[in-house]
Amino acid sequence: MISHCLGVNNAGHLEISGCDTLCLAEQYGTPLYVMSEDEIRETCRRYVASFERNYGGRGKPIYASKAFSCKEIYRIVLSEGLDVEVVSGGELYTALQAGVPGRQIHFQGNNKSIGELTMALENGVGDIVVDNLSELERLESLAAERGVTAPISFRIKPGIDAHTHEFIRTGQVDSKFGLDLASGEAMDALRRASELEHVVVKGLHCHIGSQILEKAPFVHAAEVMLQFFAQVREELGMTFEHLNLGGGFGIHYTERDDAIPYEEYMEDVSAMVHAKCRELGLDLPYIFIEPGRSIVGEAGITLYTVGNIKHIPGVRDYVAIDGGMFDNPRYALYQSAYTCILANKAGEPADYTATIAGKCCESGDLIQEHTLIQKPEEGDILAVLSTGAYNYSMASNYNRNLKPAVVMVSHGKSRIVVKGETYEDLVRNDV
Ligand code: LLP
Questions:
Q1: Could you tell me if 212 and 73 lie in one domain?
Q2: What number does the ligand 1 atom closest to the CA of 212 have?
Q3: Ligand 1 center to residue 396 CA distance, Å?
Q4: In Å, what is the CA distance from 429 to each residue of 71, 403, 421?
Q5: Residue 107 lies in a domain
Q6: Rounded to the nearest whole angstrom, what is the distance from the C-alpha of residue 109 to the centroid of ligand 1?
Q7: Preceding amide of 61 cis, omega within 30
Q8: Which of 19, 44, 360, 361 is catalytic?
Q9: Apex 395 CA angle, 304 and 257, nearest 5
Q10: Residues 53 and 131 in one domain
Q11: Is the domain of 421 the same as that of 334?
Q12: 286/384 same-domain check
């Protein structure tokens, strides 16, 4: 199985963290998001341990909560010693409601509103990651109005294209995020910040991409960023406490994904940071990394009930489910690969080629095309694996479908952490 928390029990059913998925489907109904708390905690511990082992504990992971945000996930990652990253007033509000202290929150975003920045200042957010010069000015005046000093870092574009195999350095990166290094934009922002009274620059941040299955781009990003640390010290006499290398560590969606064990990233990054700091005469910075997908992705599965099966001779077989792009838009958006299993036939061979179709009025509402599953029948329970990240968080009410519940499982026990929506929820804001 592609995830540690999954297995097949004696009844031949798929199980997750000791819970039979058929029992979960029966108890809570489908569609249903199921997440393994054991797997999430284990992954958090592996990341934390990698800082202990390779970097003397002078750093920590930040959970990028855009991958999956609800009160319980903030409580879980907080209890494992992680900080959290938020990108909107909504995520910030949820984190605060869950009891995350403001000082452990890192606030990202390329176009934060005045309302969001105000909320960050009023709640003592410990790290506002400034994306651009106009945000810097806006923040300065909002902090001045309140007579406070905002702890900030800057989001830098290091000019690394991590999505190609041969990553390349580009002077000018086409991205809506962050400040450009090569053109001098990043240096200008730091110069301006040094003149301002109500912001204090604590560090620099970069994020090179997502679902990256190699180490080299992260190591290269650390190298480029530390080179910039030295340049800033030289030109502005400014030093930084921390370096945030962002997230993007790839996971298994199918057996074909060659995901790197998460602890190995810090081994190589740490070696580069030590070497570069020695070479440039820099103090070792505190290091943050910002994983989202890899904390929750493989820990989650979605359970559906199989409905009609349409055999179109010479074309394909559509297997319809009671969910679709409203609970998982990732195939429609990115043609993402997934592993699908009939949970009640998990021990049987997967030799039936199916296209898994959702129930939305849209031909592109598919979860996977031409994928191998066990021979399906109406009423089977279909499990889609590795749906813990960017599924619930990207769900919608398209066609007025209800967002499913999220159930957390641990050591054979299950509990609801997000209730499923009801029809009353749908009309709550209608006037
Ligand atoms: N930090 C920053 C600043 C980010 O923009 C992101 C992701 C992360 C951390 C976390 O990256 P991760 O470890 O999760 O790869 N909706 C897309 C993914 C968008 C990722 C956006 N930024 C998907 O479903 O694949």
A1: yes
A2: 15
A3: 18
A4: 22, 16, 14
A5: yes
A6: 12
A7: no
A8: 361
A9: 70
A10: yes
A11: yes
A12: no
Q: Whose CA is nearest to atom 24 of ligand 1?
A: 390
Match 């309140």 to its residue by tokens. 146
pLDDT at 159: 87
d(CA 138, CA 146): 13
For residues 150 and 280, membership in a common domain is answered with yes
CATH number for position 215: 3.20.20.10
Q: What is the mean pLDDT of residues 38-55?
A: 98
Is there a catalytic annotation at residue 5?
no
CA of 247 to the centre of ligand 1 (A): 7
pLDDT tens figures, 166-183: 554 443 468 889 999 989
Q: What is the DSSP string of 33-45?
A: EEEEHHHHHHHHH
For residue 111, is pLDDT > 60?
yes
- Could you say which of 293, 315, 344 is where a domain stops? 293
Tens-digit pLDDT profile for residues 206-246? 999 999 999 999 999 999 999 999 999 999 999 999 999 99
Task: Give yes or no for residue 13 CB within 6 A of ligand 1.
Answer: no
Residue 422 sits in which domain range? 6-30+299-426
Q: Are residues 243 and 326 part of one domain?
A: no
> Distance, CA 298 to ligand 1 centroid (Å)?
15
Using the atom order of ligand 1, give the atom closest to the CA of residue 205. Answer: 3
400: which strand partners? none
